[in-house]
Specification:
By secondary structure, this protein is an all-alpha fold. The chain has two domains: about 130 residues, Ferritin, CATH 1.20.1260; about 150 residues, no CATH class. About 80% of the residues lie in helices and about 0% in strands. The protein has 14 helices and no strands. About 5% of the residues have low confidence.
Length: about 375
């Protein structure tokens, strides 16, 4: 006799799979394109097969009948698909599949169907995206994916925002202590400490982020390799579905998937890109390089507000620091126009306005506190 918690888990999994089958059947019924309809039907069949898997476990545990009625969510999405077409609801379905892609990872008895479930997220995402024609394989497929494009743009964005963090935080810090009437040497020391502390904090945060992402990626690749070895037919089927969802004909998709699966390393590379959105060659990046870059960018931005205090003092140093920081903010604003779609002038003025406003607020607070403490 199975424990009660196992039976409840089997029942919940069964209901979930039956809802998935009902949803994909509804999408297939509302789809006019024959190729996409076939994909939805294949997904519905996969969900029904998974439902039978859990129903068999319930039967073996002595549970003969499980009543089923589609959930309100399933009925609502199905109704919207019938009214507005499957494309209207596909982003919602894709997001749900992505969130559920690892739902069986903690259930060892679900290994036979775990790989297929994770593959469904990639299939639906491919259908929801722009339709592609022609056959592509391996790393060419990976380079075509949105998460592999525009990497340089993302790097530029990270660089600009890193420098902006250092500039704004230290600008506000320096103006705050300057407003309190702090001596020049103390302002310089405070600004230098803020630069080093902030840069170290940013570097450590970036190192942890990239290191954790790299460890997760390594674990996911190991899991994918294990599934290729243990359930190659399921992996081949999911890869064929993904290719078909990208616009490849069903026959060609099945042929290409079979060819890719002949080489385990090629299969791992392709499935990692397609199912996981991972480039096996990068593994999430180098944490030490990311930390060093983050440190340097933050420090570069944080240096501007304290430079004048190295050769000047008093009100003159405050004015020069504010002017130099405003100039740096304008440059950063100009750079943000490269990826925010706004004009150079607007981006620069907005950056200066908000940065100087934040510094003015901290200067005012520092002045009030300085007078109060005095």
């Amino acid at each position: 006799m199975k424990p009660a918690n196992d039976i409840e888990r089997f029942r919940a999994n069964l209901i979930d799979e039956l809802n998935g089958a009902a949803l994909y059947n509804a999408l297939a019924a509302a789809e006019r394109d024959a190729s996409r309809r076939d994909i939805f039907l294949q997904l519905a069949e996969a969900e029904s097969r998974h439902a039978r898997f859990w129903r068999d476990k319930l039967t073996a545990a002595g549970v003969a009948d499980v009543p089923f009625s589609p959930t309100l969510r399933t009925r609502l999405i199905s109704a919207l698909a019938r009214r507005f077409g499957p494309r209207f609801v596909l982003p919602t379905v894709a997001a749900a599949e992505f969130n559920d892609r690892g739902k069986y990872l903690s259930q060892p008895d679900a290994l036979p169907i775990s790989a297929e479930e994770r593959g469904h997220a990639a299939v639906v995402e491919a259908i929801a995206g722009p339709k592609r024609r022609g056959s592509t394989m391996g790393s060419e497929i990976g380079r075509a994916e949105p998460w592999h494009r525009r990497a340089s743009g993302n790097n530029l964005r990270a660089a600009v925002l890193g420098a902006n963090d250092g500039l704004v935080s230290n600008f506000c810090l320096v103006m705050g202590v300057a407003g309190a009437g702090t001596p020049t040497r103390a302002i310089l020391l405070t600004g230098a400490a803020g630069l080093v502390a902030g840069a170290c904090s940013m570097a450590l945060g970036e190192w942890l982020s990239v290191a954790n992402a790299r460890e997760l990626t390594t674990m996911q690749l190991a899991k994918e390799r294990e599934e290729i070895e243990q359930t190659p037919e399921a992996e081949e089927h999911e890869l064929a579905l993904i290719l078909q969802a990208k616009g490849v004909s069903k026959t060609e998709a099945q042929r290409a998937a079979a060819q890719i699966m002949l080489d385990p390393e090629s299969a791992l590379d392709t499935l990692a890109r397609e199912e996981l959105g991972i480039d096996p060659a990068e593994l999430g990046g180098n944490p030490w390089a990311a930390a060093a870059t983050s440190f340097a960018l933050f420090a570069a931005g944080a240096l501007f507000p304290i430079l004048p205090y190295m050769w000047d003092s008093g009100s003159a140093a405050i004015v020069i620091s504010a002017a130099l920081s405003a100039l740096a903010l304008a440059v950063i604003g100009m750079l943000t126009s490269l990826f925010n779609g706004r004009s150079v002038g607007y981006s620069a003025l907005r950056q200066v306005a908000f940065g100087c406003l934040a510094a003015a607020v901290t200067f005012g607070v520092g002045r009030l506190l300085g007078v109060s403490l005095a």
